[in-house]
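note to self — DONT lose this again. spent like an hour looking for the file last time. sequence + predicted structure for the chain T wanted, 685 res
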Amino acid sequence: MATQPIPRMTLYRQWLDQTQGLRFDSYEALWQWSVRDLRGFWRSIWQYFDLQSPTPYSTELVAPVMPGAQWFPGAQVNFAQQVFRHAAAAHAAGRPAIVFQNERMAAAGTPPQEMSWPALQRQVARLAAALRGMGVVPGDRVSAYLPNTPHTIVAFLACASVGAVWSVCSPDMGPVAVLDRFRQIAPKVLIAVDGQVYGGVAHDRRPVLRALLAGLPSVQHLVLLADLDPAARAAEFATPQRQAHDYARLTAADNGDAADPASAPAWLPFDHPLWIVYSSGTTGLPKPIVHGHGGIVLEFLKGSLHNDIGPDDRFHWYSSTGWIMWNAQLAALLGGTTVCVYDGNPGGPNPRTGQPDWGTLWRFAGAARCSFFGAGAAFFASCLKAGVQPMQEADLGHLRAIGSTGSPLSDACYQWIWDHCPQVDGQPIWLNPISGGTDFAGAFVAGNRELPVTKGEMQCRCLGAQVEAWSEDGQPLLDAVGELVCVQPMPSMPLYFWGDTDHQRYTESYFDMFPGVWRHGDWIRITPHPESGSSGAIIYGRSDATINRHGIRMGTAELYRAVEDQPEVLDSLVVDLEYLGRESDMPLFVVLRPGLVLDAALDRRLRDAIKAGLSPRHVPSSIHQVPAIPRTLSGKKMELPVKKLLLGADPAQVLNRDAMANADCVDWFVGFAQRRLAAAAPSAA
């Protein structure tokens, strides 16, 4: 059975004492220092992890301002360079870089495959050389339409090596959602898969790929990964204006010399763009968020202290490539940790019965010998409801930690994990729920194995993250629910939004409510625990109208485009009612053309259109026909008031009829809310 090593947070504290003369008698004291002395704290992370730069930096932080903080000016870094610093030592110790399995392998009984550090390094170098041969230079965008496989990690690291800016969408996303993202950044190269098997069904994505290429005239080179059909060839997508290349050929052993010094990762300015990720708001296109090499490296190395992972660990966090947890999983390579990657449906289906099989990932965790197993909170809720017995599914003797994120983890799930996962050193397994965001590619509140775990809470505020709960008038709250804010800058906060030349959209996204202070859009309560010298946190869901569907933030505007493109639909409104302790619930309200009725056939067509155009995650929990959509006098859909109403708020407090263009439609929603809340209330004894 697994045993717990000395917590990595403890080792860091000991290092601070021995090398900096800094001693803290509690985690709260350590945290307070980390947010009051930003320069000293982030310098300590640089030094503790022994980051390298061929040129010195002039200061850790020019000025503690948001937005616009400048970190480590003069330093040069590269994400890929930091990853491959560990290659020789890890390989000599017999540790692989990647452990991988997909649905097809699992169904055939094929055990997970291992990729060694030298093999990873060679493939990355070959693909990086190929990108340079295509004319890719630092700052060019390389987009990817790829699944959660080692190929995607190789492609990302190759892009990082040459200084290209990476951006990926999962192949379960339809052309509308992908083009809404990639059109904004005008990629020079597109790396795409021909298809994938998900849920036991083969999905040929070549028709989608053709639509993407038609909508992306900036693409000069296509690289095709033949994963579903080994006979697929890139040549069928070549045109006089666009060259096409086979991924397998570019990474083959006979394609270039991986030892060539020119193939080594390029040193880049600390704030050189690394990737573009997308976090959708309630209006407009998805926000193309740009993060830098240096800030991401620092944030994820710091995060390894909170996740308590190092070179001896095997780290798995189930994700698609469309979720920021994919980035977080591969970032474990920065510390020399083995990453364990599974591509496929986490809920089966079982190849023998055809029924959902929520033991799939547990069997992978056993076969891959994972020491850390992470997933979205919805996964653990599904396991609980399905009656899964993880320790009967696989030998989990190497497992010593469980991570959860994406949405609040219910108390029942805490208990289920403790009851059904192996004990470590005679104690319940360490449970590490975290909460953060795509926006800054990190966590605000997370775990610390030095501290006790309280059911329903995250253990602590992260080092270097001055997270507080604020009232609407900007006053800090303790042990009360308020807006989650971050008062001080962090290195991984966005450099900018792509194309947002005056930074207006960036500023409006985070700093409109409290100028100079990051407002994240979550409800949070900071819970003091003086007995352990720490403060925990409880996240209560989104405080705005953005959809958070099982951890992936999506904009309502994307869904409206897909729904309202249907000829039967005149108008629509969607709200995300996910909240602590409740089922994920996302009702969609539609206004239909006169004379039409929302029957089962139309309901199915709307769901199919949303799934095909966007992704399965966008499909609503229920669809309701309404007479009209509440709108303000300026014509804006009243998403947040409707959300508050359906969560039980007083209609008079959240729906100002005098400020509405169509106040007569309010009564329908009030009645719907009353019926919904009555149905959810426990029956009287």
